Amino acid sequence: MNMDYLLKTAFINPFGENHREIKQIIEKFTTLLLEHIPITYYHEQSEDNYCPVLGEIPETGKPLSEILENLGKILKGSLNPYQPQYIGHMDSIPTLMSSLGEYISSSLNNNMLSFEMSPLFSKMEVQLIQHICQLFGLGKGAGGVMVSGGTLANIQALCIARNRAFPTKDMGLHSYSHQPVIFASDCAHTSLQKAAMILGLGSSAIIPVKTNQHAQMESNDLEEKIRECLLSEKKPFAIVATAGTTVTGNIDPLQEIANIAKKYNLWLHVDAAYGGSLVFSSTYKNRIFGIEQADSVTFNPQKWMYIAKTCAMVLFKDKNLLQDNFRISAPYMNETEFVNLGEISIQGTRHADILKFWLSLQHIGIEGYDALIDQSFDLASFFTREVKKRDFLELATEPETNIVCFRITPSNIASQNRDQWNLKLQKFLLQEEQIFLSLPIFKGSRWLRAVLLNPYTTKKLVENMFKKIDFFIMHNHSQI
């Protein structure tokens, strides 16, 4: 085949004819990345930060030197979560092994749609997910699939819950006059509304349940809402509990909710996208006690397990439900005893995300992850003590994970002005210390949020941040 019109390095030649050149290119890309990581700090995005070459599609391929130069501009303009000062979101730095695993799996480009297109990775996904299910205590009959993010995991779990409850897999919802509804706390993730919308239930199908002062679902209000719906024209079929809320990281009372789900014969889904990692902690695993009662669980190793995006999964206590209530066979694939994972997943073409997770587990081990989780809890405790030392600061909730949500609330600030002053403090910390805290809305107000994931974030950095907060308060005292 004549490929003279292509660069010699457009592909990795399977006969080894360009491997020396490929290795040189990979080394240059790696060098550029390593040069970027230590020196690029978080900055606010503006038009000036964007690389002017992004929209170009050249007529002919550009020389490698120009590509590397433009890539350097892209790296410089990109957010860099490696910096210990970046503590505003659930965006962890990736383990080395997960980055390398992403490179290997992308290069192999196996399609996880079917067994014949990805035999080894398909087996690896099934076996590792079964092991994860055992860590969650879901039982020997449990199983699941990898998906691209927690939103898809929640959608698939609730889809199977809906199909099992009505059933609607083949005939849809048109024959049901009562609206199927799902109960979730008012602090639950917005992906649940998306799920209800996509499933044809309407976003109003998510019935909000009150939360207490610790952002945890109130069991009494849950049961009251269930009884109200049973007396109306609504049809309850599922409860979603959260293990690690997005804003404050709090955990619903899983065992209490499981008891209620059993009492009313409702599907229990636990969104443990964040807090699910606690199954790897010998000290803090008890905080998600009751999760073993769930019918389905969302778990995102791309968060507290430090796996390169994307890496998420949806787990089921009864893996057979995937086939009975979700599977659509692909007639263009050979039938084997091994179920094609793309047939029981919300996605068809699927990336081999399992490799980077497996490599990281092999490299770090349970003890390593246990230590990482302990370290982040220790830092969160230190951070929380610093907040409590200052009477002009308040906590949104008592932290249950490594997320601390707080704000400045001096008594002489009018409540309607507090959001603006917390925004000023956020910008001040970013300008003065390159420390980024996010500013989410919680209970109708703006709060500063620290997600203490980065293993290189130190107590010294946190101390310096609070000194800057003291400085900010002192120098703005007359205005506040």
Write the layout of secondary structure elements.
Blueprint: H1 19-36, H2 64-77, H3 96-108, H4 119-135, E1 143-147, H5 150-165, E2 179-185, H6 191-198, E3 206-209, H7 219-230, E4 234-242, H8 254-263, E5 267-271, E6 296-299, E7 312-316, H9 320-325, H10 354-388, E8 393-395, E9 403-408, H11 418-433, E10 441-442, E11 445-446, E12 448-451, H12 459-475
Parallel strand pairs: 2-3, 2-4, 4-5, 5-6
Antiparallel strand pairs: 1-7, 6-7, 8-9, 9-12, 10-11
Helix pairs in contact: 1-2, 3-10, 5-6, 10-12, 11-12
What do you see in this structure?
Helix content is 38%, strand content 12%. The protein has 480 residues and is an alpha/beta fold. It folds into three domains: 1-77; 110-360, Aspartate Aminotransferase, domain 2 (3-Layer(aba) Sandwich); 365-475, Aspartate Aminotransferase, domain 1 (Alpha-Beta Complex), CATH 3.90.1150.170. The protein has a seven-stranded mixed beta sheet, with helices on both faces. The protein has a three-stranded antiparallel beta sheet with strand order 8-9-12. The protein is globular and about 75 Å long. The N and C termini lie far apart (74 Å).
